Amino acid sequence: MKLTWMLAMLLMTVTSIAKAQDVTGDWQGTLHAGSADLHLVLHITKGDAGALKATLDSVDQAANGIPVSSISFKSPTLTLGVEAVHGSYDGTVSSDGGTITGTWTQGQALPLVFKRAAAPAKPAKPSDIDGTWLGTLETGTLKLRVVFHITNTANGLVSTMDSPDQGANGLPTAKTTREGTSLKIEAPSVGGVFEGKISADVNSIDGTWTQGGASLPLVLRRVKNQAELERKRPQNPTKPYPYRDEEVSYENKVQNVTLAATLTIPQGKGPFPAVVLITGSGPQDRDESLMGHKPFLVLSDYLTRRGIAVLRADDRGTGKSSGDFKTATTADFATDTEAAIAYLKTQPEIDPHKIGLIGHSEGGIIAPMVAARNPDVAFIVMMAGSGVPGDQILPAQLQAIEEANGKTHEEAAKDAAKERGVIALVETEKNPVVLEKELKEKMNGDMPEAQLGAQIKVLTSPWFRYFMTYDPAIALRKVSCPVLAINGANDKQVLPSQNLPAIRSALEEGGNKHFEVVELPGLNHLFQTAKTGSPNEYAEIEETISPVALEKMTVWILKQ
């Protein structure tokens, strides 16, 4: 349930383009999005070894130099992937090379035609500040790294911004201006401005970051090695593993989705007990990668070393899996888990009578949903799974996170009340046009304009509507297999005080006699040992999953 925190980070960033021969240059197009027209400029140039690279400008949102990072061009078809906003573009280049006619998909499909600009951009020599710059904002309660990527173009300096500790990369900036040794970078997408002085040796920029009326010192230093940006993750296992590690795939025939996955099998003859790992909300890869952490890689390694086979998959439409993530709900993801169970039953190394489920966050909702209608599920583990509907989860989550980040109880409670109003509007207004209009009115001024449209798309998505109203207790009352429900006492996203009693009550009401509900002291939503439990700590903490949580789950599973 990373949703409330993640919504604040959803910004209009775009990915990619790779190899092509005749699409270099500048392209202009207009996206007609409801009542608004967004004018886009696509800049495509050749990089090293002839590979294509590009940036995108969203002129009306003052977002220039948005990085484009992946492409497929097989003449005449150009396909762009847009990871950060879960969007994509598929177009056909005309025979004269003057237009690209296609469709932009981001929640909904919209026609988008690019026309070649009259004057292609001329190559520009790199400036002395071209490159990657890293700094750290110290707020008193936490440290947040900030990364700027600066590039000189024929039209002047452009840049993008990363907040790696918040999982946000490629954030667009509007203006990057330099006068002598003074540098100014404006990032309206996050409401921030950096102003600094370039040192004489051009290896540091000493300045100030201003955002939301507050200013903090920020010193940027040139990044000379990519390793400087990487956090230590000591629990990540390294190959060779003392077990088999196989790339596999299987079909969800019900919804025509192919899931790409990794199956780890212990040493020995078998057949082995097995678990399917189920990711949390948002498009997740098979490792549930987040801020440099790979929780499901660590969990899979720990279990497999102790004799339990593990299947973990990329979410549909993510990584190597097919399907459309944007249109799916929690109920759809449950059918992907059922496909995983069916696949494991076909494997000779797996005991078909000892297949269980481990779900984290939203996965903790899916696990009982699947077990309730599949009596052959041997057991389930709910890692920070919820026991109440989403319309209760999110306001409580927002208030807890804001208080952990330093807001007063009164301030956080006021924000939570406002969020309840937004959720109530989403739940009651059925006309999508009216809903979008009312959401804009209600949320106007809460965030930069560039964020507002992206957040409204999430709020009006099928997944959000389903999640708000689905009651996990209904499925929990029908679960008859053994259940382990664990939460960290410092979890600020799925509060243990709100959810563990509800899970216990539902299981008792259903007559389940084989369950354990445990609150683990000092652990956060990711089951890391944490000080406050705020998501802002996730990246700073080197531990990926507490050994206490790993051992608790493993010992319990082996007893079943």
Alpha-carbon Rg, integer? 24 Å
Give me the secondary-structure category.
alpha+beta
Main sheet attributes: strand count, strand direction, barrel closure: 9 strands, antiparallel
Shape label: globular
Helix tally equals 12
Number of domains: 4
Catalogue the unreliable spans.
1-21
Annotation, overall tally of beta strands = 26
- The percentage of residues in β strands lies in 25-35%
The helicity comes to: 25-40%
At the third CATH level, what is the topology name of the largest domain?
Answer: Rossmann fold
Note the main attributes of this structure.
single chain, 560 residues, alpha+beta, Lipocalin, Rossmann fold, 4 domains, 9-stranded antiparallel β-sheet, 25% helix, globular, disordered N terminus
